[in-house]
């Protein structure tokens, strides 16, 4: 092997090895993430329990609960979009158990619809506790006066509705609401991009190998032309 080819060959092999290693790392991360998502999904679907006395965002996230109370008339609208449906609002109201007041995510209404009146009397709600992290740097500030919210900011909502900073996302109600479709907690909002990252790294490894091969072939052709 000519000495002039050795250095490009080393760079080619080293580059491919690094890129394949990164792809393998993403495959390992994919397996880990799928395990985490499976655990979360099992936790979400577990039998419901009573509302904890002091719910904690980390310890009680996704906790399945069953709470009985009266749904308040005042409701906040959080702008969302659903596939095959379009724009709409999540409806956030007060759930008053008599002893406690918490936030209740009742579900989805179309953007053109009025907020339906809640069921009268006591209602039993099965759902999950959630502290969503929906605010990005590009998210507008909530229009509290106009009642258009762009993120479920739990502390701010609790302050406006005078509740504990605890959100129950309804899965089902003992008295189903007409015009409101529950949007229960699931794992679809948890990002899992490791497969696409792995494909990207493996593709780059193939491109690097091809480019290195072409570069070395052209060097050999140029050297043969000089002889």
UniProtKB/TrEMBL annotation:
Q: What is its main location?
A: membrane
**Lineage of producing organism:** Bacteria, Pseudomonadati, Pseudomonadota, Alphaproteobacteria, Rhodobacterales
Q: Name one Pfam family in it.
A: SURF1
- What is any one of the record's Gene Ontology cellular component terms? plasma membrane
- The entry's protein name is SURF1-like protein
Membrane topology (UniProt): Multi-pass membrane protein
> Cellular location of this protein?
Cell membrane; Membrane
Keywords attached to this entry = Cell membrane, Membrane, Transmembrane, Transmembrane helix
Q: Which spans are transmembrane here?
A: 5-23, 195-217
Q: Which organism is it from?
A: Roseovarius mucosus
Similarity section: Belongs to the SURF1 family.
Kindly indicate where the leader peptide sits in this chain: none
Q: What InterPro entries does its record include?
A: Surf1/Shy1, Surf1/Surf4
């Amino acid at each position: 092997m000519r000495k002039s080819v050795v250095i490009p060959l080393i760079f080619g092999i080293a580059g491919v090895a690094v890129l394949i290693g990164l792809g393998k790392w993403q495959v390992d991360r994919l397996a880990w993430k799928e395990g985490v998502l499976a655990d979360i999904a099992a936790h979400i679907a577990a039998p419901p329990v009573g509302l904890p006395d002091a719910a904690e965002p980390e310890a009680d996230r996704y906790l399945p609960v069953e709470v009985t109370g009266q749904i308040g008339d005042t409701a906040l609208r959080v702008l969302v979009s659903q596939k095959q449906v379009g724009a709409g609002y999540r409806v956030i109201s007060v759930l008053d158990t008599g002893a406690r007041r918490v936030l209740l995510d009742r579900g989805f209404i179309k953007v053109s619809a009025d907020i339906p009146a809640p069921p009268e009397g006591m209602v039993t709600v099965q759902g999950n506790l959630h502290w969503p992290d929906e605010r990005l740097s590009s998210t507008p500030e909530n229009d509290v006066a106009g009642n258009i919210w762009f993120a479920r900011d739990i502390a701010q909502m609790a302050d406006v509705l005078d509740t504990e900073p605890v959100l129950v996302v309804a899965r089902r109600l003992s008295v189903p609401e007409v015009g409101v479709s529950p949007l229960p907690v699931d794992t679809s909002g948890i990002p899992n991009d490791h497969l696409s990252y792995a494909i990207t790294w493996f593709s780059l490894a193939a491109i690097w190998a091809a480019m290195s091969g072409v570069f070395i072939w052209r060097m050999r052709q140029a050297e043969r032309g000089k002889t």
